[in-house]
Design a protein that fits this description.
Number of strands: 10
CATH architecture: Sandwich
Radius of gyration: 37 Å
Strand content: 25-35%
CATH superfamily: Fimbrial-type adhesion domain
Order of helices and strands: HEEEEEEEEEE
Helix content: 10-25%
Oligomer: single chain
Largest sheet: 5 strands, antiparallel
């Protein structure tokens, strides 16, 4: 067999292989375009008709401050729209007292405010879960620092500030 014939034969086989693979590797593509309009309506909740709440304890006697006496109900009305689920969280945010981190600080360093949710003491700055269909009841009561003694100069007006936060889960 001569070399030229062998080369020609190999070229034919190579071209045949290329043609066969070319036939099988042929592909086609199709570009598909998708479009739409995604409308996102975020949930919105309004707490107490967006009104600031004021709690006036009036005159309180030091000897009667025990966390139960002088307890006042906090107004808690909530109107939500576009909720995907009814699961929410509530937290009472504020500066902690210098004698208990779970109690709200007042302008009197020997006095704080304790919060109750559904009758159970709740530390400030902690989230609790609740269902929009079953709003919790909120109460607040003055508490004293029992580790200190009071004298005549400790009396007088006091103030405190807290923020109620409602978040979506």
């Amino acid at each position: 067999m001569n070399i030229n014939k062998l080369r020609a034969n190999m070229k034919i086989k190579f071209l045949y292989i290329l043609i066969v693979f070319s036939a099988f590797s042929y592909s086609s593509s199709l570009t598909v375009e998708f479009n739409g309009n995604l409308i996102i309506t975020p949930p919105e909740c309004i707490l107490n008709n967006s009104q600031k709440s004021m709690i006036h304890f009036g005159d309180i006697l030091l000897s009667r401050i025990d966390g139960v006496n002088y307890k006042h109900k906090l107004p808690f009305e909530l109107t939500c729209t576009n909720l995907a689920m009814n699961n929410l969280t509530l937290s009472i945010q504020g500066d902690p007292s210098n004698f208990n981190n779970g109690i709200l600080k007042t302008s009197n360093p020997k006095l704080g405010l304790s919060f109750y949710i559904n009758g159970i003491k709740q530390d400030i700055n902690k989230k609790i879960n609740f269902n929009y269909l079953e709003l919790p009841s909120l109460e607040v009561s003055p508490v004293q620092n029992v580790a200190t003694s009071f004298d005549g100069s400790d009396g007088g007006d006091f103030t405190a500030l807290a923020t109620l936060n409602v978040d979506y889960q």
